[in-house]
Amino acid sequence: MKKYQNFINGEWRDSVSGNTVENRNPAKWDEDLIGLFPSSNEEDVNLAVCAAREAFNKWRLIPAPKRGDVLKLVGDIMSNRKEEIAFEMTREMGKVIAETRGDTQEGIDTAYYAASEGRRLFGYNAPSELPNKMNLSFRMPIGVAGIITPWNFPMAIPTWKIFPALVCGNTVVFKPAELTPKTATTLVEIIDEAMKKVLGNDYIPGVINLVHGKGRVVGEAFLSHKDIDLISFTGSTEVGRRINEVGGRMLKRVSLELGGKNAQIVMDDANFDLALDAVLWGAFGTTGQRCTATSRLILHKKIHDMFVEKLVERVKKLRLGYGNEKDVDVGPCVSETQRNIVHSYVEIGKNEDKATLLIGGEFAIEGELSKGWFYKPTIFVNVKPNMRIAQEEIFGPVLSVLKCEDLEDGINILNGTEYGLSSSIFTNDVNKAFKAVRDIQAGITYINGATIGAEAHMPFGGVKGTGNGHREGGWTVYDFYTEWKAVYIDYSGKLQRAQIDNY
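-> structure tokens emitted (503 positions)
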């Protein structure tokens, strides 16, 4: 068993509190203790923020292409360690290794994309309304970024946030999820290794800092710290509201990527085999523990019964198990607490008027599965749009099937929740496809694809209760991590007054 540490001001150190917590394999809970990690406090956060604040004054002066070189090397190191990272991530949070390889690859792709953005932090020029005067604009770094990330994508999501923050010239204090501290530690080790190799004698301690601990302690300390200038958070809507409230009072810049209740519509003219593959992947990939997971399936009434019958047969063939073993389709829930939350929603569904449990709905405890937090893939039919299982985010392998009359009805059902993250429609009618693109209220819409599978170079985020308007991924995230500065250069040799009745 290994004891891990925080990373503050270029050094690995224990928490000031001296307290630690265990990190265990959710598929083999009693057998596999991964390590002990710090249970940090407000003093640890203060040390990290002070280090980041001091480092900012030096890091912001490193040319952006040079900062990009650091991230290029980060991508190279991650590529070389991809299999190791994926294996340990599956061990830590449970999803199958094919998915953790994808999680790692997304981090690699994000590193290379961010590296190239170091040469593309473009400003805009505009003509002046006055003679002999030039108008320019520049992107400027903001300061110290507080990064708070979830456990379901413990490599990809931190890279979405940390890499753009760094290439824009900000410094970082990183609080990962309590359930995935080892993957976060590996990421910070790689970033620091790349910093040292690229910067050499110009290495700046404190550019990246890692503080492990509980959200209600470390996360709260982030919110109230006067020297954290911006906060990027991915997690529950409830916590997001708290962050927005406190951050707003302190005028911090805040980016929130919150919950989802995503739906896949299947019309009667769709490719049914393709749609079946998509809903299986969308609903039960990552054990349903994605903000973009397919939580609702909206079927045209003409094909409802046939499609459900085929879907149940496919679900019966899914193999549950430890994700580092061969031929496993579905891993465990990340924790006992999460499994209990999933089961509580199944009980709610069973008690809601006329909803019918078709398959699943119970713990998976057969043989080796008894060692972990496994839950059987679950399907409800006869679900009505206003039922709780059709409205609230469950974050587990539970699919609610609803019936629609036509395209308009299907879109209305899809839009009828407080969330608006991801969406999908299967149809071979191009007119229906474009109407769906126009009318679906979501930040992401897939045509003939699952609700999961966003690409690193595209904007990621949602509308309504899913966030506060910012986007991660792609070119759009760089607006969050920079401030615009307008610069006016007057070479007329006299005082000219813009917008003072020059016309």
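The longest strand covers residues 133-141.
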